[in-house]
Write a structure and sequence with these properties.
It is a single chain. By secondary structure, the chain is α/β, with parallel strands linked by helices. The protein has two domains: 17-242, Type I PLP-dependent aspartate aminotransferase-like (Major domain) (Aspartate Aminotransferase, domain 2, 3-Layer(aba) Sandwich); 245-368, Aspartate Aminotransferase, domain 1, CATH 3.90.1150. The chain is built from twelve helices and 16 strands. It has helices spanning 17-30, 38-51, 62-72, 88-94, 114-117, 140-150, 201-210, 232-242, 245-263, 297-306, 337-345, 357-368; strands at 7-8, 55-59, 78-81, 99-102, 125-129, 153-157, 165-166, 169-170, 177-181, 194-198, 215-217, 220-221, 269-271, 285-289, 309-310, 346-349. The strands form five sheets. Strands 2-10-9-6-5-3-4 form a seven-stranded mixed beta sheet, sandwiched between helices. The protein has a three-stranded antiparallel beta sheet with strand order 13-14-16. The N and C termini lie close together (10 Å). Bound molecules: ligand T4K. Ligand T4K binds next to helix 3 and helix 4.
Length: 370
């Protein structure tokens, strides 16, 4: 069945335009457009309450938040990370003059494999930067144990993990810092945006200084900071979006369940496991196209595209295969077999609150061949 309008891997769930007008009127009235104004402050508090975390510092995007998180903890030398992520994860290391050391992922979770981390630690290693890929929590307990044993910091790239809980608490509370993305394509979006979650007020204060050029007051600059502040318009939009987040997560859950049921018995299609005890956010719906499926991964990807379904191969190519990384010893394909395999098998299917049932049915029909 050929779909009439394109179906993307994701589509932002937008509130009614009229509901945004009162927020704009307030901005127009008080003429505070940025620099941590009233909406910025309100959104930080509202997110702490909603997510169950102690402190949040809002940013213009997730990438800058990652860059600043590394600066906030004064990370240097080498950082252990995953090659199976969006390229911003390791770009944040290069922007800080840090050498990424790639460690393979676990084939079941596609997250950093804790069994492989210790072998990659050298005297230069100062931190681990794992990613909660697709919003599925990493093995946070084991990662913390390794970090404690070797006196390493842990900064989670939690760009996909908005609202995810592990053992009845926010997964964002693990590690030293967690970094969120509120990009348009994310479960919770502020057009562009991001945040650092941190456990104590002192670290939050350092992060707040760093995202505002290092200013403490009009005449005092304490660090070579950058401009990473979220504007009032983005923060206002975030406050409005928060009102519908639970309803949107429920819609995502329904879509996730329907895919799982419909694809469960399709030979050669493996749905990445749901995250068990955790409260998930259904941010992505990755399938792995194995060799016993009648089409190759790329053939299925093209078949979907030819029918107006713009699924994505997140994360192909691997970060370690990009030119600025591929000469690193840890980037050698033979060193990263699980990541290579996943990158060659994955397709992320469309999942977003406004995806219609008929649209989902047509995607499933193309995969099952019915
Ligand atoms: N760490 C991780 C693990 C990440 O995944 C990301 C970002 C980051 C860090 C960095 O966070 P940010 O600095 O971005 O806050 C997208 C997003 O741009 C990126 O935020 C995201 N990860 C990544 C996984 O996906 P593209 O290049 O695939 O996006 P694009 O423009 O092709 O959009 C995908 C589809 O979404 C489009 O086909 C249509 C739809 N779409 C997109 C936009 C921008 C819309 O419907 N409306 C829109 O406004 O990277």
């Amino acid at each position: 069945m050929k779909s009439t309008k394109p179906i993307y891997v994701t589509q932002p769930a937008l509130p009614e335009l009229a509901d945004f007008i009162p927020y704009l009127e307030q901005i127009w009235d008080n003429k505070i457009l940025t620099n941590c104004g009233p909406f910025h402050q309100q959104l930080e508090q509202a997110l702490c309450d909603y997510l169950g975390v102690k402190h949040i510092s809002l940013f213009t995007n997730g990438t800058l938040a990652l860059v600043v998180a590394l600066q906030a903890l004064r990370i240097t030398g080498e950082v252990i990370t995953t090659p199976y992520s969006f390229v911003a994860t390791s770009h944040s290391l290069l922007w800080n003059g840090i050498k990424p050391v790639f460690v393979d992922i676990h084939p079941d979770t596609l997250n950093l494999d804790p069994d492989k981390i210790e072998a990659a630690i050298t005297p230069q290693t100062t931190a681990i930067m794992p990613v909660h890929c697709y919003g599925h929590p990493c093995d946070v307990e084991r990662i913390q144990k390794i970090a404690d044993n070797y006196n390493l910091s842990v900064i989670y790239d939690a760009a996909h993990a908005f609202g995810v809980q592990h053992q009845n608490a926010s997964v964002l509370n693990y590690g030293d810092l967690s970094v969120l993305s509120f990009h348009a394509t994310k479960v919770f979006n502020t057009f562009e945006g991001g945040a650092i979650v941190c456990p104590d007020a002192k670290t939050k204060q350092r992060i707040d200084h760093l995202k505002n050029f290092g200013f403490v007051d009009e005449v005092t600059v304490v660090a070579p900071g950058i401009n990473g502040k979220m504007s009032e318009i983005n923060a206002a939009f975030g406050l409005l979006q928060l009102k519908s987040i639970d309803a949107n997560l429920q819609k995502r859950q329904k879509i996730d369940s329907y895919y799982r049921a419909a694809l469960a018995n399709v030979h050669g299609i493996h749905c990445l496991g749901d995250s068990g005890e955790t409260i998930a956010n259904y941010a992505y719906f990755p399938i792995l196209v194995r060799s016993d499926y009648p089409l190759s991964r790329d053939q299925l990807f093209e078949k979907l595209r030819d029918n107006g379904i713009y699924a994505r191969r997140y994360f192909y190519p691997l970060i370690s295969d990009f030119p600025m990384y591929r000469s690193l010893p840890s980037a050698a394909p033979a060193h990263l077999p699980a990541a290579q395999k996943a990158a060659n098998e994955v397709i992320c299917l469309p999942i977003y609150p406004t995806l219609e049932f008929e649209q989902q049915q047509s995607i499933i029909a193309l995969i099952t061949g019915n």
